[in-house]
């Protein structure tokens, strides 16, 4: 998965769930929304475990 695809995944997941950056940070175990913002603008690399978490959360939501 490219950097751009990872950025799109986190942004799309957050927006599809109606999350603010603060909500997304909490859901993913981060203390600050700033980290999510950095992910979304490509300022920080998105760790693989975050991608896996989002993928799992997406699967769980589609099974409900």
When the domains are counted, the total is: 1
User: What low-confidence regions span 5 or more consecutive residues with pLDDT below 50?
Assistant: none
Largest sheet: none
Give the full name of the CATH homologous superfamily: lambda repressor-like DNA-binding domains
Mean pLDDT: 92
From the coordinates shown, what is the CATH architecture? Answer: Orthogonal Bundle
Number of strands: 0
Residues in helix, %: over 70%
Distance between the termini: 27 Å
- The helix/strand series, from N terminus to C terminus, equals HHHH
Q: In what range is the share of β-strand residues? A: under 5%
Report on this model:
The protein has 64 residues and is mainly alpha-helical. The protein has one domain: Orthogonal Bundle (434 Repressor (Amino-terminal Domain)), CATH 1.10.260.40. Helix content is 72%, strand content 0%. It has helices spanning 3-16, 21-28, 33-41, 48-62. α1 (3-16) crosses α3 and α2 (21-28) packs across α3 (33-41).
């Amino acid at each position: 998965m490219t950097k751009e695809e990872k950025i799109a995944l986190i942004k799309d997941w957050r927006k599809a769930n109606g999350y603010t950056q603060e909500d997304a940070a909490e859901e993913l175990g981060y203390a600050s929304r700033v980290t999510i913002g950095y992910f979304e603008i490509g300022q920080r690399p998105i760790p693989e475990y975050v991608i896996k978490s989002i993928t799992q959360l997406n699967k769980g939501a589609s099974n409900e």
